[in-house]
Design brief:
Length: 230
């Protein structure tokens, strides 16, 4: 007797999306509240700690989604990928940073200056140790945590409904998770580039590389643009 399997039961679906996003909010709220209790007159310290918050919430939410039904990492994009895709991802990370500058310029022209990530820039400009710590948090840990959730779970599940859902809708969800400010269109752009990579490769590693290179370029540019804070 032939066994018929349903491939949708072996890949992330709406249950994983719902659990992952709910867990992300549940984790993010107490982390944000705890973050608010830190001394506000220490922007460098706040920036170093803040660079890891998204990674913590994303990794925890991903773990909740994985533990729901599938309990295997491969369906979430943890699979080998050709080296050329990693190189392409790094190039897209640099290109994404260039697009970020354009988006910010347009935003400032219409809405004025807005820097909701000021503390992250402060950490990047705070000297060698804060820069390295914030770079590890912002360009390694946060890209991993956010990508495994928003691409490995969300975009992955939405891909079955086509390009607009897998890339467009998932990148909007990713953008909204970063708040309504100049970061919204920037995050949507980065999310779209990453979602396209995931749709093409089915692997999470190029997405992490893209996100990490983009965040790293942002940190390096911030550190080089201003003299270190005292």
């Amino acid at each position: 007797m032939e066994t018929i399997t349903n491939p949708r039961l072996d890949t992330p679906g709406w249950p994983e999306v719902a659990v992952g996003l709910i867990a992300y909010v549940v984790l993010l709220v107490p982390l944000a509240l705890a973050f608010g209790l830190l001394p506000h007159d220490q922007p460098v310290l706040l920036g170093v700690i803040g660079s890891t918050v998204g990674g913590l919430a994303g990794t925890g939410a991903f773990a909740a989604a994985v533990g729901l039904r599938i309990r295997s990492l491969r369906p979430f994009g943890f699979k080998p990928v050709a080296t050329r895709w990693l190189i392409i991802a790094a190039g897209l990370g640099i290109a994404g940073y260039g697009l970020n500058l354009i988006i910010q310029s347009v935003y400032v022209a219409f809405f004025g200056y807005d820097d909701p990530q000021g503390i992250l820039h402060a950490a990047a400009r705070g000297g060698a140790l804060p820069f390295i710590a914030s770079l590890i948090g912002g360009a390694v840990f946060t890209p991993f945590g956010e990508e495994v959730l928003f691409r490995g779970v969300v975009a992955n599940a939405l891909n079955r409904y086509g390009l607009l859902a897998g890339v467009g809708l998932s990148s909007i969800i990713f953008g909204l998770a970063h708040g309504v400010s100049v970061i919204l269109p920037v995050a949507i752009m980065v999310g779209a580039l990453s979602a396209i990579l995931f749709r093409q490769t089915g692997a999470i590693w190029p997405c992490i590389i893209l996100h990490g290179v983009y965040n790293g370029a942002n940190s390096v540019a911030s550190a080089l643009s201003f003299t270190p804070m005292q």
